[in-house]
Design a protein that fits this description.
Chain lengths: 416, 178
């Protein structure tokens, strides 16, 4: 029977030869990530059950939202997370070392073909490595900690076929923002988004993570990219010597719910305007909009490639005095590499504010008052997401954010 | 036991794409106490929401209800504010699972918004998905809640269900040891 890559992974994980979209399966979980904002509910409920963890090696508590804590309440959350890891002897605790999703992939904790769940909707990021990964809530995570498995409805797959060479100053972020504007914030609800085509094949892993990270913004269950030589190379750089993914591809006659074609060569830099990530327009339509702050970072775009792109645009210039441009490396590893390559120095000299790795402003760390506007490289611009419900968040690529940081207004990176 | 058929008044009607951030904004997430979460529920969007829902009733909404963050505080807050059931044209998947897991029934009904007003009294059959609007004398067909999930709801949510299952498992082990 022909299957998509997502169907193949769920079939293996549920011990079946074949599954098809619509089937309900119970899949064994390979990795359970718990971030600090949803963790306390998981931990409290799990303690109440009084049972053992199903597999402490597969559980990954990460402190990234309360990072830096900045309040007594968040300090309490950090304490609870650390205490849980200690009490249950969980070896893989990451305490303020970066955004959970970046840590999981760069530490080589998830492999192609595996099943990952996380108490964060952007857990779909790991699909860029050819894994099935999706976000769940706290109570469901508690059940995973007990049983090590979870039920799933096998999703229908939408194929997103991207071809052509991306024009200069157009990034993978622009591809996913464009797709979101085409299919809408519920365009892929309950479905798998499978990204194919030469544009995707030619993309770096950093770029691919950005694409899969935002699959949830269309309501998708998971985003996925077929693993290839680039995946293998990436895994090697993360210390994984062997990963067999020879069977991990969608069969040529696999059934797709639909297929959407995107011509990368025609894309302009995109900006998603308030209050939905699916509200993107060509940057030229909002050029000149006055801003109060920029954030370059988050699990969407806080990787080395993103910081490099920012440094190349901002280097040798100055951020306006009244303006704030926050740089939030996605992890300590990214921070160290960006430092080694001189990007952080370049950005600091230009007047950027280099912040500790973590969720940063995509959470609650860089709030805005009524009437203020931010352009960020993160993934959500919902009303009140970053402070006052009357503040506004615009989403764009690192290049668009960097270009805008130099002027204090939304700026087309092709014109810098 | 959860009644298969339930009857409540519609107390609030919301539009499309109501995200979980706006249900429980991150900036106010200083406690996980349900009562507190209920008090801040939807405060940036509908400040009167908790007082409107206080008597206990149905919330109806449009497409993609509960999109965005996987935060479980969102359905906890809705429930604590008095929401007995959400009927929406469409749910975002993480929210749907979270809501059923904490014992808040969710029913999908494509025509709910166009055929229902605040103050209408509805009788909802969770087994068949049929919704009777007793005020207007109309019938709408919704998507039934699958049997397994109804059993879970009936127990009061996934945790309560899991406790029952664990106890059953322990009892079985005891039998074997005898």
């Amino acid at each position: 029977m022909s299957m998509t890559i997502t169907e193949k992974i769920l079939a293996r994980a549920s011990g079946k030869r074949n599954v098809k979209a619509g089937d309900i399966v119970t899949a064994e979980v390979d990795l359970a990530m718990i971030q600090d904002a949803l963790g306390p509910i998981v931990y409290k409920q799990f303690r109440e059950l009084g049972v053992l963890l199903w597999d402490r090696e597969k559980v990954f508590p990460v402190i990234d939202h309360s990072c830096l804590p900045g309040s007594m309440e968040n300090a309490g959350t950090v304490h609870e997370t650390v205490k849980f890891a200690e009490d249950y002897q969980i070896p893989n605790l990451y305490n303020m070392q970066g955004v959970s999703h970046q840590i999981i992939v760069e530490e080589g904790k998830i492999l192609p073909g595996q099943v990952a769940v996380g108490t964060d909707s952007h857990t779909c990021t790991y699909g860029a490595l050819g894994a099935f990964s999706t976000g769940i809530g706290s109570t469901e995570m508690c059940a995973v900690l007990v049983q090590g498995r979870l039920w799933f409805k096998v999703p229908e797959t939408m194929k997103i076929h991207v071809t052509g060479v991306l024009p200069e100053h157009v990034m993978s972020k622009d591809v996913i923002l464009k797709l979101l504007s085409q299919i809408g914030a519920n365009g892929a609800t309950y479905k798998a988004l499978e990204f194919t085509g030469d544009t995707i094949e030619n993309m770096s892993m950093d770029s691919r993570f950005t694409i899969c990270n935002m699959a949830i913004e269309a309501g998708a269950k998971n985003g996925i990219i077929r693993p290839d030589e680039k995946t293998e190379e990436y895994l090697k750089s993360c210390g994984i010597k062997e990963a067999d993914f020879s069977e991990l591809y969608s069969d040529t006659d696999a059934e797709y719910e639909s297929c959407i074609e995107i011509n990368a060569a025609e894309l302009a830099p995109q900006v998603a305007v308030p209050y939905s990530p699916a509200n993107s327009v060509d940057v030229t339509e909002v050029e000149g909009t006055k801003l109060d702050q920029i954030i370059i970072g988050a699990c969407t775009n806080g990787r080395l490639e993103d910081i490099q792109a920012a440094a190349e645009i901002i280097g040798g210039r100055k951020i306006p005095h009244a303006f704030k441009c926050f740089i939030v490396p996605a992890s300590n590893k990214v921070y160290a590499k960006a430092s080694e390559k001189g990007y952080l120095q370049t950005l600091a000299e230009a007047g950027c504010i280099i912040v500790n790795p973590g969720c940063g402003g995509c959470g609650i760390q860089m709030p805005m008052i009524a009437g203020e506007r931010c352009l960020g490289t993160h993934n959500r611009n919902f009303k009140g997401r970053m402070g006052s419900p009357d503040s506004m968040v615009y989403l764009g690529s690192p290049e668009t954010a960097a270009a805008s940081a130099l002027t204090g207004r939304i700026t087309d990176p092709r014109c810098i | 036991m959860l009644q298969t058929k339930v009857r409540y008044k519609v107390l609030e009607k919301l539009g499309d794409h109501i995200d979980t951030d706006v249900m429980t904004p991150g900036k106010y997430l200083t406690s996980y106490d349900p009562e507190y979460l209920g008090s801040i529920c939807l405060c940036d969007l509908e400040p009167d929401f908790p007082s409107k829902m206080a008597q206990g009733g149905i919330l109806i909404a449009g497409k993609n209800f509960g999109c965005g963050s996987s935060r479980e505080t969102a359905p906890i807050a809705l429930k604590a504010a008095g929401t007995k059931m959400v009927i929406a044209e469409e749910f975002a998947r993480i929210f749907y699972r979270n809501a059923l897991n904490i014992g808040l029934p969710c029913v999908i009904c494509k025509k709910i918004s166009e055929n229902t007003d605040v103050k209408d009294e509805l009788e909802v059959d969770l087994e068949t998905g049929r919704i009777r609007n007793l005020t207007k004398g109309t019938i709408m067909e919704g998507t039934p809640i699958p049997e397994d999930l109804r059993a879970q709801l009936s127990a009061g949510g996934l945790m309560a269900y899991l406790k029952i299952k664990l106890e059953e498992g322990a009892e079985k082990e005891d039998e074997h040891s005898v």
